[in-house]
Specification:
The complex is a heterodimer of chains A (217) and B (308).
Chain A (H helix, E strand, L loop, with lengths): L1 H16 L7 H37 L1 H4 L2 H10 L12 H32 L11 H5 L2 H18 L10 H46 L3
Helix pairs in contact in A: 1-2, 1-8, 4-5, 7-8
Chain B lengths: L2 H6 L3 H17 L10 H11 L6 E7 L5 H17 L3 E6 L5 H15 L9 E6 L3 H10 L1 H4 L44 E6 L3 H13 L3 E5 L4 H9 L5 E2 L2 H15 L1 H9 L5 H35 L1
Parallel strand pairs in B: 1-2, 1-4, 2-3, 4-5, 5-6
Helix pairs in contact in B: 2-12, 3-10, 4-5, 4-10, 6-8, 10-11, 10-12
The chains are: A mainly alpha (217), B alpha/beta (308).
């Protein structure tokens, strides 16, 4: 069974990679199969790992203690009522509570967990320069704080569109563009590394899990 | 037509072929190129090293098969590191598409390397739960509410792993739901290690760390890594293993500290971050070469156009 799984995985990998040569029906088949299997897997795992232990089993084993779970279950079921046009409006109740819940959670999370700590870290005392060497100077706390402050504020000036840039703000905005470019460059480098890692993983699978065992290496 | 004109008009499939060769050759004949350690990986390793035997940590598989080559070595490295230090590990998966399968496979693989570790006492796999943010909020109130059972359907209430350090559960006692002062919330954990693709890793930082104070280390895909530097700078992250490079650095640090792991990483046929870095270097050389040639050809072409 494991051998069959390996052969199917190898075939699918080659089918997807065949797109690099040109678009073809085998690639389309693999693409559609992947989309279908992903959705089926998602439905199956949600049923088995979320709804079964958190809803079905508690209701079946001790209804009196867990009857309130019916409310959440019903609200979830309401979402699917949109497929029945006559009572489609019921879906709005489920959706409204779903959206409201996530706004509440997200609002606190973003403000408390991201905006405030990041702002606090940007407002730094510019002190602690180290003049013992070039590397020590550029990595000293004072220089790092200065870099963070200049970078943050110059980028903010670049994104300030309410007033046309003038002789003072234009060079600052230009500096902000440089900071953005360096940041995009770093992100691009990491992205290349990430995508290449996927190729490495697939070729590693083809060589060590498929070709080598097939030829008894 | 000059050489550079021909380079500008090269069929992209030739470039694909070079890329495949640059990846395949180092896989077949590893070069063993050195891997330098970055500060964020060192900080992550040092924090995990500072944990005491018996401490309890949370490992969340927040990625799918699409980023497994980058993330698997991180998760498995962390599991090995914890087992070596006798740190208890609670595993879960919050990524819907394949997170659970990867968690099951990684836990089984590493547990087989440490046969002395007991399931339910030294480690447990709680399985997958949908709705990452909602799950994290529940973990801050009561773990058992979010995960009443483990991945096999066994109730977690009586599992010894959730008892305080060095305390065994009295027979017949009710565990988490009873009178024993057990580990009930994520706030009682010494560390959350999230191996993540997408937003779920960020939730652990901005929700669990911010609201419950649990230290967080992240192992993101390389694509997501740049944004997490801001969280390291603000002190919200204890460390980070950025992509396959981060995984390789972490493996090297583990191997340096624990000689048995150096032997393991040298001899294993499993895919590791360190093995992947040879291919990464090869392919980066090819990319840099083609960017250089493309730019030279473009500039020469523009100069010639200027003359005519």
């Amino acid at each position: 069974m494991e051998l069959l799984g390996t052969w199917i995985a190898a075939f699918m990998t080659l089918a997807v990679l065949s797109f690099l040569y040109k678009d073809n029906p085998i690639f389309r088949f693999a693409e559609s199969l992947f989309a279908g299997v992903s959705l089926g897997y998602y439905v199956g795992i949600t049923l088995d790992q979320t709804l079964k232990p958190n809803l079905f089993e508690p209701l079946a084993t001790n209804f009196n203690l867990n009857w309130d779970l019916m409310i959440a279950g019903l609200l979830g079921a309401f979402l699917y009522m949109r497929y029945v046009p006559r009572i489609g409006w019921v879906a709005r109740y489920g959706l409204a509570i779903y959206v409201a819940y996530y706004i509440g959670v997200e609002f606190t999370r973003k403000l408390h967990g991201e905006v405030l700590p990041q702002m606090a870290r940007t407002i730094l005392p510019v002190r602690g320069f180290d003049f013992s060497g070039i590397e020590a100077f550029f990595t000293s706390p004072g220089m790092l704080a200065l870099g963070a402050i200049i970078g943050t504020y110059s980028v903010l000036v670049y994104f300030f569109f309410s007033k046309e840039h003038n002789a003072v703000t234009r060079p600052i905005a230009r500096l902000g563009v440089w900071f953005l470019m360096i940041s995009f460059g770093a992100a691009f480098g990491f992205t290349v590394m990430g995508r290449v890692a996927l190729l490495i993983g697939r070729l590693n699978f083809l060589i060590f899990d498929w070709i080598y065992p097939t030829f008894g290496v | 037509m000059s050489l550079f004109d021909r380079l500008l008009g090269i069929d992209r499939r030739w470039i694909f072929l070079f890329v495949v060769l640059a990846v395949t050759i180092p896989i077949l004949a590893p070069l063993g190129l050195p891997v330098t350690t970055t500060g964020s990986t060192r900080a992550a390793f040092d924090y995990i090293e500072s944990l005491a035997p018996g401490d309890i940590v949370w490992l969340s598989f927040d990625y799918g098969p699409s980023s497994a080559p980058e993330n698997d070595p991180m998760a498995e490295g962390f599991l090995r590191h914890c087992f070596l230090k006798n740190v208890r590990v609670v595993v879960c998966a919050l990524y819907p598409l394949g997170g659970l399968g990867l968690a099951n496979a990684s836990v089984a693989r590493v547990a087989a390397e440490f046969p002395e570790k007991k399931y339910g006492t030294d480690y447990v796999n709680l399985g997958y739960k949908d709705g990452a943010e909602a799950v994290m909020r529940r973990l801050g109130e009561n773990i058992e509410d979010a995960f009443p059972t483990d991945v096999n359907g066994q109730p977690i209430s009586n599992m010894p792993i959730f008892q305080p350090k060095h305390q065994t559960i009295p027979s017949g006692d009710a565990g988490m739901g009873g009178n024993v002062a057990g580990i009930r919330t994520i706030g009682q954990f010494k560390l959350v290690f999230t191996v993540a693709t997408g937003l779920i890793g960020e939730y652990w930082i901005t929700l669990v760390n911010a609201q419950f104070g649990t230290p967080v280390i992240i192992g993101p895909t390389a694509v997501s890594a740049p944004k997490y530097y801001a969280f390291i700078g603000s002190g919200q992250l204890k460390g980070m293993l950025g992509g396959m490079k981060g995984a390789a650095e972490y493996e090297q640090l583990i191997a340096r500290k624990y000689p048995q792991m150096a032997k393991f990483y040298r001899s294993t046929r499993l895919f590791t971050g360190t093995k992947g870095m040879d291919a990464q270097t090869g392919i980066h050389a090819v990319i840099i070469l083609f960017i250089f040639l493309g730019n030279v050809a473009f500039l020469l072409g523009r100069r010639r156009q200027g003359r005519t």
